[in-house]
Every structure is written in structure tokens, then in C-alpha cells.
From TrEMBL:
Family matches, as CDD domains: NPD_like (cd04730)
GO molecular function annotations of the record: dioxygenase activity; nitronate monooxygenase activity
Key words, A-Z: Dioxygenase, Flavoprotein, FMN, Oxidoreductase
Record-given protein name: 2-nitropropane dioxygenase family enzyme
Species, as recorded: Methanonatronarchaeum thermophilum
Entry-linked InterPro entries: Aldolase_TIM, NMO
Organism phylogeny: Archaea, Methanobacteriati, Methanobacteriota, Methanonatronarchaeia, Methanonatronarchaeales
Amino acid sequence: MFDIEYPIIQAALGGTEWDMVELTAEIADAGALGHVQHPVATSKRGAKEVINKISKGSWDDELIEELVERQHSIIDRVLDQTDGSFIVNVRVHERQVDAPDLIQALIHRASEDREFASQCKGILTSAGAPKYTKQIQEAGFLNLHTCALPIHAKKAVESGVDVVNVTGYEAGGHVSHQPVHTFPLVAGTTKMDLDTPITAGGGVFNGAQITGLLTMGVQAAYIGTRFLVSKESDYNQKAKEILADEKTGFEDTVIAPSLLSDARFYRTKGSIKLKKMKEKGATWSEIAKEEGKRFQILDDQGELQEAAIMAGQAIGGINDIKPVKKIINQLMKEGVNTYKKTANL
Ligand SMILES: Cc1cc2nc3c(=O)[nH]c(=O)nc-3n(C[C@H](O)[C@H](O)[C@H](O)COP(=O)(O)O)c2cc1C
């Protein structure tokens, strides 16, 4: 389906300053599936300005054009660096006004760029209902769709998606309002015999977990935080070091409100402030504005305790910042060893 060697998919890591070009290219090059992100900043405007505009609902054509341009400049650079396979993320939440334009631009590009059409295997839609499936499929792409509840996975399959991607509450970044964790989420989804491939993630940092997922009926593991904390990731270097620190534990994340829904962050004064704002009844747009400021602190290499740093519970199991090819080798080795131990029982 994806023309990959390993059952590993890079999760969407939508960014402000960072673009994850090196990371995506290395993952694709290693024989796993890379993932081009849906940007949150542009070459002309930083996170604070973009999120401020979004929080006021004041998207303008120029901003949308810049976001489309940024996504395609990421694709250009990924294509320059690898012949491997990747997918592209488009968040389709109702507040994500740029989604239709991003999808149109990808479809248009596939019609005239053969290299892109052959390496880009699909569009992963997330953070909303899968309403672009037909358009995406007619353009020759697969539509993968992210869900966080079994009931949503069933609905996505009924609306015709090609792959249903489930991510549990342990995950970094946006999570469901209903806290269903990866283990019951995966079992609850595979149990329905949906007759559509399932990929899954949320909390995956070692190969034993990948074997676990495959054994439960999943086709590939969907991994974000482990790759975020890698040599090629262009996330804030100091943030990567803190996330990889052996003193950082599984308990060091916090759920706080974010641009589209609740999200999981590394615990900082900044993310706790966002959480408290919600508890005190702040409006969505006040929270979004504050979040924009805190993303900007991360981008400007400011005081990390004041920043918003998205990361999943997997940080408790990550103690190094290695090259991606080494991470993938290790994941596969651990996965095979786990399988052999199981088979020997
Ligand atoms: C920094 C960061 C940015 C993210 N951005 C997006 C995004 O733009 N779109 C999306 O669908 N998911 C996004 N996610 C969620 C991931 O795609 C994925 O669900 C999650 O990383 C999987 O769990 P894990 O982090 O435990 O591996 C993001 C996660 C992180 C950590």
C-alpha cells in the first residue's frame, strides 16, 4: 500500500518554526513512511502572529496562500532528499479555514508533478470529520484519517477512508476530549472487524509496543514523540534535551487547551497557565492567543518554562537524541526480539 519496508509511520508533527524536513526525508529513506506536516507559521509570519489571526477568525487569502506555499516548500525539500514514501497531513477541523486550499493544492500538484505523485502515498486528514475523502481518492491518493475513539473509527470507515489511524490519550499534541487510551482504543477498534487497514499510536517508544500493536491487528505503528526527540528533528534543541533527560518521567505531561482541542504538553509553567485559563472559563480565542505567545517563546529560544512544548507520555521512555535510522533499527530489533520471546513460550 505504502511501498515501505517497516511497519512504522511518522506521525504528523505540525509546526511553527520547525518543519521536520530532515526528519521526514530520513524516515522515508530508512524504509518507513515519512509525513509532511501542516504548517502553523509561514516564511513571513511567526506562530504568534498566525495564531493570533486564527484566534480572531481573521484568516485572509494572503495567509492561506502563505501556508500553502510553506507546505509545498517542505515537500520540495523532502523530494530533494529522498526517493522514499511519505504522506501529507491536513488538519480538517472546522476552524482550520486553510484545509480546502491545502487539499486542492496537493491534488493540483499530483496532476503535474510525477515525482510527487509517485512518492506521496496519501493525505492524512485529522482533527475533524473525514469530509474530503472522495476528492482525495479521485486524485489518486489514499485517505488516511486520524480518530481517537472507536466510534469515530467506525464512522470514518463508513465514509470510505482507506486507512483508519487511531491515536490514544497518551499521545503528544491534540487528543480527544474523552480520555480513551491506546490499549482499549486499539482493541475496541480492531474488535469491530472494519475491513479497512488500521494504524495506531499514542505512547509508542519501543519495539515491544510495535509488536504488541501488530499482534492486536494493527498494520503499522504511528509514532510522534519518539521521532520528535531525534537528531534530525528541528524542534527546539533545549526542549529535545529536557524531553530526553532521564529525570523526565511518564508523569511529566499535562493536558491543556490548544488551538483546535485539548492537547498533551510537556509540563511547564506555560502549559499549566493554559490549563488554568480553561478551568477559569477563558474563551477559546483568549486561550489560542495565549498559546500563540507560548509557541513563539519556544521558537525564539526563550525561557522553556514559559513555553508550550507539545510532547506525549512516551518522554518517560526516551533517554537519547539519536539519528532516526538508529531509532528505526532499534525499534525493529526490539520488536523482533519480543516476537521471538513470545513465540518461544
Ligand atoms: C509537536 C507535535 C505536533 C503535532 N502536530 C500534529 C498535527 O499538526 N496534526 C495532527 O494530526 N497531529 C499532530 N500531532 C499528534 C501526532 O500526530 C500523533 O498523534 C502523536 O504524536 C502520537 O503519539 P506519540 O507522540 O505518543 O507518539 C502532534 C504531536 C506533537 C508532539
